[in-house]
Task: inverse folding
């Protein structure tokens, strides 16, 4: 919320996205532990309510902070909400592990050097900050991990952004387009 490089409404969205993604992840973990231990399905109800209550407390605080920074509206809007690519849904064609592992690079092998160099997410000229931090491969790895045939590009962007920091939706869409060209995913 306090990042001066982000406009107030964008900072608000990113902060709430982080809380929402964390709530989803922690709720799923809680449910998984109950299922793994053979507990009854309702055994996680108290823990789930506590997680929701905590997330609500954080979101209310974020809402107040956003208003102090000058954000307008009652809820934040996704910075990518009007991007047509954000609504597309990728589907895995086969099961893949990491697309880059040790000396193997599936995208480079399937697309060739020229096309590979044009992928914005991993092109140092297009994403200098990510490459300075050497995070483009982390983002790429997680983008493919979140492809499940149900999530949209925007939802994948939000999940990955909650893990590593805000990422423009066009970089996610461009990377997934390259994955589609390489036969790793297809578009629904």
Result:
């Amino acid at each position: 919320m306090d990042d001066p490089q982000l406009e107030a409404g964008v900072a608000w969205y990113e902060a709430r996205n982080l809380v929402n993604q964390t709530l989803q992840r922690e709720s799923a973990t809680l449910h998984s532990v109950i299922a793994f231990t053979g507990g009854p399905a309702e055994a996680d109800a108290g823990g789930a309510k506590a997680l929701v209550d905590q997330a609500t407390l954080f979101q209310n605080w974020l809402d107040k902070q956003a208003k102090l920074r000058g954000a307008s509206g009652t809820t934040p809007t996704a910075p990518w909400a009007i991007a047509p690519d954000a609504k597309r849904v990728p589907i895995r064609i086969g099961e893949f592990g990491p697309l880059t592992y040790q000396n193997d690079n599936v995208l480079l092998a399937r697309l060739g050097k020229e096309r590979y160099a044009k992928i914005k997410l991993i092109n140092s000229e297009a994403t200098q900050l990510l490459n300075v931090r050497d995070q483009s491969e982390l983002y790429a790895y997680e983008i493919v991990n979140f492809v499940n045939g149900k999530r949209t590009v925007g939802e994948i962007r939000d999940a990955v952004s909650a893990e590593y920091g805000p990422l423009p939706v066009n970089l996610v869409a461009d990377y997934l387009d390259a994955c589609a060209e390489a036969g790793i995913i297809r578009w629904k």
Summary: The first helix runs from residue 8 to 37.
